[in-house]
Amino acid sequence: RAPGMSAANFFMCFESSFFFMISYLFYLPFMMEYFATIANERQVDIKEDSKKEKNVKIILDYIDNNYQDSNFSIKEIADKMYYSIAYVSKIFSETMNKTPVEYLTSLRMLKAKDLLRSKNYTIAQISEIVGYKSQFYFSKRFKEFFGVPPKEFNK
Question: What gap in Å lies between CA 116 and CA 114, rounded to an integer?
Answer without folding.
Answer: 5
